[in-house]
Amino acid sequence: MQIYVCVKHVPDSAANIHVIDDIRIDPNLAFLLNPYDEHAVTEAVKIKEQHPEAEVIAVCLGPEDAENTVRSALAMGADRGILVQTDSIFDSIETARILHQTITDDGVPGMIWTGKESIDAEGMQTMFRIGALLDCPVATNVVQVALGDNKAVVDSERVGGVVYTYELDLPCVLGAGRGLNTPKYPTFPDVVKSKKKPVKTVSLDAGASSPDGASMKVVKLEPLIQTRTPKAMTGDPDTIAREIVTILLQEAKVIS
Amino acid sequence: MSNAAVIIELDGTGIKEANWGMVTMARMGGTPSEGTGDSKAGLIACIMTPVDDSMRSELESYGISTIVEVVLPQGLETNPDVSARALLSAVKAHQVSSVYGLSTALGKDLLPRMAALAGSPLVMDCFEADARTGMARTSQYSGKTLASIKMTGERIFFGVKPNSREPEKKPVSAEILRFDASDTAIQGLRVLDVQTGDQGKAVSLAEAEVIIAGGRGMKNAKNFDILVQCAEKLKAAVGASRVAVDSGWVPYAMQVGQTGEKVSPKVYIACGISGSIQHFAGMKMSGMVIALNTDENAAIMANCDYYAVADALEVIPAVTRILENG
Ligand SMILES: Cc1cc2nc3c(=O)[nH]c(=O)nc-3n(C[C@H](O)[C@H](O)[C@H](O)COP(=O)(O)OP(=O)(O)OC[C@H]3O[C@@H](n4cnc5c(N)ncnc54)[C@H](O)[C@@H]3O)c2cc1C
Ligand SMILES: Nc1ncnc2c1ncn2[C@@H]1O[C@H](COP(=O)(O)O)[C@@H](O)[C@H]1O
């Protein structure tokens, strides 16, 4: 079975983001493997441990530097990688189309893993779009998975501990949630070994734009500036508590 | 094709409160042909349950002129893939060009399915959504930037963050139509089980108007009961920092932040939380932030609306007592 894992090259969440020319961020910062995709890679590698015939392939659409992100996935145990190289920024409709095309050109997916969300675009949808293109079932925020005969049984977490257990026919697309596993960070030997693993770089044919003009385009990006002016509440705990209740009642109007 | 539709979410007792802000937003920016203000063309509500008189009058009071009851196949009501296909057929049949749904736990499993099946654009977690221009605003880069996104296509989807807009009434009268989607077939995804867990009945973080969150300053699991008791009085949800989750005091589902839930309550009360960048990523869209911290130099104290240098373990029980006894 071929297990494909979509890995995105994203800015480090701890980095400061500077917006340039109103729609892009200054790319001179640290990039890494999208955190949720780490869970996806970890799980795919775990599945391979139980199914040694499986092959884990990391797929990324991104700039030249994104090869580092693909290599991170290899260091975490993926067998090989494919980088679809581009300097353009694609929306999730096009991204899904390119990833789907790349995967089906390369092999026959038994499963496709993604993260439940990319921390830069925060789109929460690429997995569903890949699933629709492949015409196969999708589950997201997956926190547990068991493989059966041509089926996967997964727990998909909704909110506040509400868990849906789904049975999906294979192939399927699964979006990894944080509760799925604890990513095993690569050791130095893993990193050395990963340098010898193959990464195929494919360059993208010009604009894979959607035939019916369906698109999403960021037309303006602004730093989220906080404009809060803190006001102190003082006194003993009881006085502070009374002030809080008054604020909730009169200013915020969330209680009556 | 210029109708706008809202997908109405239900809770155990009827229509969720969180819908009304979204309905108001859809109404104000509902139809491409209209100018500013309320659109003259009606707004369609798709609802996956039979509508009784009280639901109908509630929907009418917020300006819904067409109610479409979407009849799902029996026994498959919890299947999000079946619901998505059924709802998509319904909006197509009613010539809907813009679809509004809530960016809630359910919405996150439903709207992307619909948009993907339709091959249509979608912006999740938006706090502004105007169908006339196809514009949505949402956060990107772990909550560090605001993005204005223009959607084009024959049909566009908005996943609206709860509490993004104050609900406003606009009474109209509505007709009720049925859309029979009971023949929608399962396509490779079956629901085996739904476990609601302990939290099933509690207020969900994504929709809560008020959130009381605890961090390392709560010191142990037991002290979270203090927050739970206060939350019950406020109809609030309880959230937590990653430290509280990683210490095993509360389940991961309660985590607020970059790697947890991104919340947008009217009021966020942070108890014993320092205000790290990653925590802020999840709660900075809150209307009002109240911080209780023993350290006046904690980051959150400089980035909130009200703060008290105080022990949260003393203040919160006092709040609960006042709410109980006046
Ligand atoms: C990639 C990444 C992702 C992350 N994602 C998240 C995330 O999603 N959510 C998140 O929260 N964190 C996240 N973190 C962790 C984050 O960096 C902080 O470590 C965490 O938010 C700190 O939690 P805290 O405020 O509870 O603890 P601390 O920073 O230790 O703060 C505790 C505060 O409690 C105060 N205090 C102590 N006793 C009392 C008392 N009795 N009453 C009142 N105040 C008291 C202290 O003065 C202190 O300010 C992430 C980190 C990384 C690297
Ligand atoms: N450019 C990309 N390259 C590889 N995978 C991607 C890319 N964009 C999105 N994905 C995958 O899709 C998931 C969801 O992304 P999003 O829909 O943007 O939240 C991510 O966690 C990735 O696994």
Distance between the termini of chain B: 54 Å
Strand order of the largest sheet of chain A: 11-10-9-12-8-1-6-7-13
Bound molecules: flavin-adenine dinucleotide, adenosine monophosphate
Beta-sheet strand percentage of chain B? 25-35%
What's the rounded overall pLDDT mean of chain A? 93
Helix content of chain B: 25-40%
Number of helices of chain B: 8
CATH-defined architecture of the largest domain in chain B: 3-Layer(aba) Sandwich
Summarize the structure.
Chain A is α/β, with parallel strands linked by helices and 256 residues long.
3D structure, described in words:
The complex is a heterodimer of chains A (256) and B (326). Chain A is α/β, with parallel strands linked by helices and 256 residues long. Chain A is built from 6 helices and 15 strands. In chain A, strand 9 and strand 10 form a beta hairpin. In chain A, helix 2 packs across helix 5 (188-194) and helix 3 (92-106) packs across helix 4 (126-134). The longest helix of chain A is centred in the first third of the chain and has 16 residues, at 35-50. Chain A starts with a strand and ends in a 5-residue tail after the last helix. Chain B has 2 domains: 3-180, Rossmann fold (3-Layer(aba) Sandwich); 210-324, Rossmann fold (3-Layer(aba) Sandwich), CATH 3.40.50.1220. In chain B, 26% of the residues lie in helices and 27% in strands. In chain B, helix 2 (53-61) links the parallel strand 2 (43-47) and strand 3 (64-71). The longest helix of chain B has 14 residues, at 80-93. The radius of gyration of chain B is 21 Å and the shape is elongated. At the A-B interface, helix 4, strand 9, strand 10, strand 11 and strand 14 of A face helix 4, strand 5, strand 7, strand 8 and strand 11 of B. Strand 15 (231-232) of chain A pairs parallel with strand 16 (306-309) of chain B, so a sheet runs across the interface. The complex binds flavin-adenine dinucleotide (FAD) and adenosine monophosphate (AMP). Adenosine monophosphate (AMP) is lined by residues 6-8, 34, 36-37, 60-62, 92, 95, 99, 114-115, 117-118, 121-127 of chain A.
